[in-house]
């Protein structure tokens, strides 16, 4: 990097890691000359969105010369009704990652501590650091579960903000309703609790998963729950997520840092159309959960360690450098995510795809590891 330009930047910026979004399908095709690509690196829904979404987008094509509704009124009202909250308790984002960034811009700065999990969803760490806050990471237990006692102790020290992913990305483990109640008990009123439920539609099929919004209601502490249309709803390419906060005052602060037209028209229209066909989403989620259990069992039977997952992905220990394994899989047209955080470099995260792609993954992994799976 050019020295001079780096000196002009805020001191936090040059030290931030670049987000590792992986290679695109086209890049893999060109580099390795493979035809079929199994896209299992980004936890997308391979079944895609309801067909109603495509129809709604075709109709939209005649109106794209207009700016979108900056308050996303139709979508906001629909989501408020869905969750039985006031429209003023909702913030919409260009993906929920946009809201993670707004939260850090509005609430964190130099001297603040942000609490989250390790291994983590990278942006739970990168955005606070971007603002100059320091990040405290809670470790997993030895059996790849959340450490309730460590989290409660850390929450009692009143960090400015706590990112609680439920379930975890990349591990897939979850907080149960009972554990979540204890976290809430331990939390200080000086901490904004941010519960990231990107995989809630999958996790709610796992017994014990909390009704977080119900538990947070009237808890007397500041909170916001984040959801996204990128995963189960199949709209990752359009970018739309939202947050439900306990208090409209939280949303009013986020609105100060939000870019006015952050959720584009196509995203608003598509999310509305998807919401109207929830049954389609539920069917795809059920299919994925069945596939997940079959894949996990197959990998475990072959002697690989797989963390219990309440999501649409698996965290798998491969017994050697996962980056090297990932490279071998790429050459066979299978995209997964090798983990890079210290202590987890022998783990890969694989999204649960359609049956034939999971099959391709298993065959490719078997070839790369040189053992039957
Ligand atoms: C995928 C994911 C998101 C981001 O989703 P977008 O709405 O696409 O920005 C947020 N949090 C977690 C934990 C995720 O896995």
TrEMBL record:
One Pfam match, given by its short name, reads Aminotran_1_2
| Cited PROSITE patterns | AA_TRANSFER_CLASS_2 (PS00599)
Give cofactor(s), names only.
pyridoxal 5'-phosphate
Q: Which UniProt keywords apply?
A: Amino-acid biosynthesis, Aminotransferase, Histidine biosynthesis, Pyridoxal phosphate, Transferase
Q: Which reaction does it catalyse?
A: L-histidinol phosphate + 2-oxoglutarate = 3-(imidazol-4-yl)-2-oxopropyl phosphate + L-glutamate
Q: Which domain of life is it from?
A: Bacteria
The main enzyme category here is: transferase
List modified residues, type N6-(pyridoxal phosphate)lysine: 231
- What do we know about how this protein assembles, alone or with others? Homodimer.
Alphabetized HAMAP family for the sequence: HisC_aminotrans_2
Instruction: Give the protein family.
Output: Belongs to the class-II pyridoxal-phosphate-dependent aminotransferase family. Histidinol-phosphate aminotransferase subfamily.
Instruction: List the protein's name.
Output: Histidinol-phosphate aminotransferase
**Originating species:** Comamonas terrigena
Lineage of the organism:
Bacteria, Pseudomonadati, Pseudomonadota, Betaproteobacteria, Burkholderiales
- Gene encoding it? hisC
């Amino acid at each position: 990097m050019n020295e001079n330009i780096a000196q002009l930047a805020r001191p936090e910026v040059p030290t931030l890691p670049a987000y590792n979004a992986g290679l695109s399908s086209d890049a893999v095709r060109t580099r390795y000359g493979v035809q079929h690509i199994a896209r299992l690196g980004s936890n997308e829904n391979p079944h895609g969105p309801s067909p109603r979404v495509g129809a709604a987008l075709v109709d939209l094509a005649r109106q794209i010369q207009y700016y979108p509704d900056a308050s996303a009124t139709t979508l906001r009202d629909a989501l408020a009704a869905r969750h039985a909250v006031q429209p003023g308790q909702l913030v919409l984002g260009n993906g929920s990652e946009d809201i993670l960034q707004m939260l850090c811009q509005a609430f964190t700065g130099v001297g603040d501590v942000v609490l989250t999990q390790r291994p983590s969803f990278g942006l739970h760490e990168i955005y606070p650091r971007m603002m100059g806050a320091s990040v405290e990471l809670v470790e997993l237990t030895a059996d790849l579960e959340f450490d309730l006692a460590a989290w409660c102790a850390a929450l009692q020290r009143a960090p400015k903000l706590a990112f609680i992913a439920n379930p975890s990305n990349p591990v897939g483990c979850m907080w149960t309703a009972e554990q979540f109640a204890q976290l809430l008990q331990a939390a200080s009123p000086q901490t904004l609790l941010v519960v990231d439920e990107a995989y809630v539609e999958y996790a709610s099929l796992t017994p014990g998963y909390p009704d977080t919004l119900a538990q947070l209601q009237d808890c007397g502490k500041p909170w916001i729950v984040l959801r996204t249309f990128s995963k189960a709803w199949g709209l990752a390419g359009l970018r739309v997520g939202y947050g439900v906060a306990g208090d409209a005052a939280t949303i009013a602060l986020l609105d100060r840092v939000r870019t006015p037209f952050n959720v584009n028209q196509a995203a608003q229209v598509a999310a509305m159309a998807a919401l109207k066909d929830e049954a389609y989403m539920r069917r795809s989620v059920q299919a994925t959960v069945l596939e997940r259990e079959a894949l996990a069992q197959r990998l475990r039977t072959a002697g690989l360690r797989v963390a219990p997952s309440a999501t649409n992905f698996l965290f798998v220990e491969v017994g050697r450098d996962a980056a090297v394994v990932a490279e071998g899989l790429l050459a066979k047209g299978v995209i997964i995510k090798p983990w890079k955080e210290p202590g987890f470099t022998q783990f890969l995260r694989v999204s649960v795809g359609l049956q034939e792609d999971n099959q391709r993954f298993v065959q490719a992994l078997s070839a790369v590891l040189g053992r039957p799976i």
